[in-house]
């Protein structure tokens, strides 16, 4: 068992799983799920990497634009590429477009998030009465 543990510790991974990466799908979750998740990741890590393949690229761009237009994020890096994906229905690999957008916090991110939290608390208090 100790050999397995040592082997795992010494394992070299070509692309490590990033704690601040969100892989966006345009079919699994609603748009604002990703917006809110990105906000949470930026609170925890100061930046977030949004990535998507194919048709989900529009969703990633929309999430990034919502965060930028609300004054919460600034673009740090945008990378595009194509990746080979195995298509079981055709039995051959096909290329898909890929985008990765790295967003960082704006200077007033924390104040905007605190103000939004305060607004939610006031609205919740009004609902009680």
From TrEMBL:
<dbReference type="InterPro" id="IPR014560">
    <property type="entry name" value="UCP030333_Alba"/>
</dbReference>
<dbReference type="GO" id="GO:0003723">
    <property type="term" value="F:RNA binding"/>
</dbReference>
<dbReference type="InterPro" id="IPR036882">
    <property type="entry name" value="Alba-like_dom_sf"/>
</dbReference>
<feature type="domain" description="DNA/RNA-binding protein Alba-like">
    <location>
        <begin position="20"/>
        <end position="81"/>
    </location>
</feature>
<dbReference type="InterPro" id="IPR002775">
    <property type="entry name" value="DNA/RNA-bd_Alba-like"/>
</dbReference>
<protein>
    <recommendedName>
        <fullName>DNA/RNA-binding protein Alba-like domain-containing protein</fullName>
    </recommendedName>
</protein>
<dbReference type="Pfam" id="PF01918">
    <property type="entry name" value="Alba"/>
</dbReference>
<dbReference type="GO" id="GO:0005634">
    <property type="term" value="C:nucleus"/>
</dbReference>
């Amino acid at each position: 068992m100790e050999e397995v543990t040592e082997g795992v510790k010494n394992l070299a991974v070509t692309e490590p799983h990033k704690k601040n990466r969100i892989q966006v799908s345009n079919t699994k979750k609603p748009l604002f799920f990703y917006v809110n998740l990105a906000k949470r990741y930026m609170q925890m890590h100061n930046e977030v990497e949004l990535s998507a393949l194919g048709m989900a690229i529009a969703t990633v761009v929309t999430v990034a634009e919502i965060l930028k237009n609300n004054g919460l994020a600034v673009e740090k890096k945008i990378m595009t590429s194509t990746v080979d994906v195995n298509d079981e229905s055709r039995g051959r690999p096909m290329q898909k477009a890929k985008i990765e957008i790295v967003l960082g916090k704006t200077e007033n991110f924390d104040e905007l998030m605190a103000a939004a939290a305060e607004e939610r608390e006031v609205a919740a208090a009004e609902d009680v009465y």
